[in-house]
Amino acid sequence: MSMKTKAALAAMLLTAVTVSFAAEDGAATYKKKCAGCHGANGEGKPAVTAPALRGRKLEASQIAQHLTKGEAGSKPPHNKALAGITEEQATAIAEYIKTLK
């Protein structure tokens, strides 16, 4: 196996591990900050008018921006930046939401 091939395989493995850790962190953060309103599996909760998140056709970057910047037309807490959330947490949550089926 050539050195280039070994380096490429190592890079792919590192990326896969990093994505896996991000998904786990995103899942934990989602459960702590989002599941109360949007449901454990992103199914939404009509009783509190929280929409379903799974299956939505949004890019992860759009979800992360919604969490970190908020939108004036949204109801609290999404009418402004979600309190205490970092860009990294928002990105991890967004990546996790994209895995919900």
| Mean pLDDT, all residues | 84
Question: Could you state the order of secondary-structure elements as H and E?
Answer: HHHH
Largest beta-sheet characterization: none
Portion in beta strands: under 5%
What does this structure look like?
With 101 residues, the protein is mainly α. It has one domain: Cytochrome c-like domain (Cytochrome Bc1 Complex, Chain D, domain 2, Orthogonal Bundle). 57% of the residues lie in helices and 0% in strands. The protein contains four helices and no strands. Helix 3 packs across helix 4. It is globular. About 8% of the residues have low confidence.
Which helices and strands appear, and what pairs or packs with what?
Layout (H helix, E strand, L loop, with lengths): L2 H31 L1 H4 L21 H10 L17 H13 L2
Helix pairs in contact: 1-4, 3-4
Notable traits:
globular, mainly alpha, 101 residues, Cytochrome Bc1 Complex, Chain D, domain 2
Quick recap:
The protein is an all-alpha fold.
